[in-house]
Amino acid sequence: MTPGDPVLPADAPIGVQDARKLLASDEPHIHHMASLTRVPGGRLVLSFSRVPGARRLNNGLLMVARSDDDGTTWTTPEAIYAKASWDCLNMGGLMPFSDTRLLLALGRLQIDPTLTGDEPCTGWHMATRTSTDRGETWSPVSPEIRLFPGWTELYGASNPHRLADGRHMLAVIGTTGRDVGWRAGVTFTDDLGATFSPPVIVAEHPRLGFGDMDIVRLADGRFLAVARVFGGHPSVFAHSADEGRTWSEPRPTDFAGANIKLHRLQSSAVLCAYRDERGNRSGVACSVSEDDGETWRRLGWLAAPSSGPPPKADGVRCGYPDIAATGGRELVCVLHPAADATGCVGLRWLRLEDRT
User: Fold this and answer.
1) pLDDT tens-digit readout, 145-185
2) Those residues with Cβ within 8 angstroms of residue 308's Cβ, 6 or more apart along the chain or in another chain
3) Cα–Cα distance for residue pair 225/108, rounded to 1 Å
4) Cβ count near 266 (within 10 Å)
5) Which of 155, 174, 213, 314 is most buried when burial is the number of CB atoms within 10 A of its CB?
């Protein structure tokens, strides 16, 4: 098993057709935290953070690239958001609201590695930019969006979700202060992401923190949410039968995942991709549920972990899988594995087959 490579059993409901490095560079770099979506005409749009060198020093740039051949070739990535002395990145990523409205939830952090906690940051800021031409050009950056007292992030790799009344629902996470009071919820918009409602909380607890939540609509019309629990605890799941207005009490899954991505397969089984928070946290795993999230079966690795402590890029863990359907049974996936032997991090591109 080679670190970073996919490893799935022959009878898995998804199969790997191809796996390769994406946007390779001869210069030391960190390419991470990618978001991927498919827009009208079949174009794929990709956004990711690029850090020059192999240390994260509040100097990340948010980049965008496009592909019109299902990811075989890409435009030269262009910087879409940068600010001196800040780490700029996806704060939710790409969100297609309509054929002519693509939002990008972006933001910036000020990282202080001397601080403790899951997110050692002294500053954070989230906003959006909009494209009406399939990612070719983008609007100016919006005013700050803050839906929680502290950190606010439209984290939900499958955002947005169109509701029966025409509104959209999005997963959102946030805090009550600096790295405290982490909770996960949903917000609603009736103007295609121009404004957002106060969050409806899905998961919160006096002592546990929740984040990295994704949502998928099930075959029976309900929504399933799966969220990370900080500290390596099992991830939790909840259901909503009323278009997100109320949610069941969160219950634990049998995996501990971060950077959750949900995708409903053709059979209506739900695939969950995540950074495995057990062990040395250097692998991206996946599990599948055939009973709407009640139970899960582990499949294997989309990016295998290292056998020992992985090479480290300062401030970067592997993860952030995102998946898009390109037609028929084909899926494409982007993620970043753990750092290589030089400390660099590069995106990985997987072409998958839905075998269900």
Assistant:
1) 999 999 999 999 999 999 999 999 999 999 999 999 999 99
2) 280
3) 26
4) 12
5) 213
